[in-house]
Amino acid sequence: MELNRRILFTGLVIAIILSDSIIFLATDKSRDFYSNWIININSAIAAALAIFIVFRQKFHTLHGKAHAALAIGLSLWLCAEIIWAMYEIVWQIVAPVPSVADYLWLSAYGFLAYYLFATYKEFNKKFRFSKKVLIASIIGGVIFVTYIIGLTTSLSVLSTPRSIAMFSVMIAYPTMDAILMVPAIVILLDIRKEPLWFTPWICESLGLLLIVLSDSWFTLVVLTSLTEQFWLSSLFFAAHFLVMAAGLVWYIKYLTLHHYEQQPQHQHKMTNSDTRLHNGNSNMIVPPPAVSEKRKKRIPIGTITCMVLILFAGFVVYSIYPIIFSFGNANIEVIPAPASSKHTVTLGALLSLSGASASLGESEEAGLKIALRDVNESFKRTNTNLGVGLILEDTHTNPAFGIEELKDLASKGIRIVIGPSTSAELEAIKDYANNNGIILLSPSSTAPLLATPGDNIFRLVPDDTHQAEVIATQMRKDGIEVVI
């Protein structure tokens, strides 16, 4: 068994190095693509192994129902990873806060918590857990959550609904992680003398620790706007699923019902070091479960069906997501030109009034309305028979909405559009604007790749390349030599 344990951990290390190397060595442009694929593949492996255990155990072993909850939790995480990959690879948009992926991720914690606490309860019947370890784990979890909440509060500006939602999501993940870590640590430390059980729980606990590191780094990156460092959390996340998978492989090999069924009757006792759980000064053998022939044939069809339906529903909902929200869009504001104007010009505006860049769009909306009022008042003072109107639409910081709303403005005869706010949205609609003679005036797009000579796009800010050059020059003038 010691040899098999070494083979397992050696294979795990090699798998982590290979998968993380693909992410680490990828170029900046391709890193999102590879990290999403690697995480989805690793997540699918872990979910498939958990489902396989459910089929093997069929709810009748020591941890049958608990592992069914684990399978559901990992399947929900897989669905969340697929949808997140759709955001970044397929739609290439900034995910809303909270997103459907967030709902799936967070809902999985309930099933994972059931798995851990059910296992904790079952093991606690066989031997006494150390209360000191339990109390220390709880105190450590409270300290960790308190620190994360304090850090998040100090770096957050809770002035908009989006910022409040972002704050809630950022503290939800570390809080859930801390809750899961408490039973995992207690079980790990109290069964360390049982090598058969200790091996998978090393993987369980290490996997949860990697989740803590990944979520903590993700929170720090979001709060400090260091978006180019997102990929580092992908390294931890990809490794997490592989570590979980390694623990499940060990469980399948040594601890599932099928393993006991394949052993001769006299081998069920196994060895003291492998299966005996210590209860104070006495030893207790965990017997193989008695299973009737009828119960052996029962397969948890409902569990598997639910997971398949969840996965299918995620694809369906997000395939028609832009279409659903395009109907009856109430985020359209029409500001007509003054009634006294004999000649009117109507402009369009595509701004990010909700979604990831809502704070940016809201300030642009305020400035645009002030400018519109000043222009019309100036025309009135000079007795000019000209007035300017505005049709303002919310893009939700989503390129899929932006293109549909630009088509809507074009159908109303509008040929000058202010916006959109982000480069991703501008990239999605620029070809349509060029082909249909629509002038776009973006107040905040900075992507260098969108600086194309002869197009219909005008941007009011320098692109990132020129901004970086100016900032670096100014820093040298100010004597700044180190950037933290």
Brief descriptors of the model:
alpha/beta, six-stranded mixed beta sheet
Strand order of the biggest β-sheet: 3-5-4-6-7-8
Count of helical regions:
17
Shape: elongated
Structural class: alpha/beta
What is the share of helical residues? Answer: 55-70%
Work out the number of β strands. 8
Output the helix-strand order: HHHHHHHHHHEEHHHEEHEHEHEEH
Any idea how many domains?
2
> Average pLDDT value?
76
Low-confidence residue ranges: 257-301, 315-330
Q: Approximately how much beta-strand content do the residues carry?
A: 5-15%
Q: Can you summarize this structure?
A:
With 484 residues, the chain is an alpha/beta fold.
Characterise this structure.
With 484 residues, the protein is α/β, with parallel strands linked by helices. The chain has two domains: 2-319; 329-477, Response regulator (Rossmann fold). The chain contains 17 helices and eight strands. The strands form two sheets. The chain has a six-stranded mixed β-sheet with strand order 3-5-4-6-7-8, sandwiched between helices. Helix 6 (161-190) runs antiparallel to helix 7 and helix 15 runs parallel beside helix 16 (423-435).
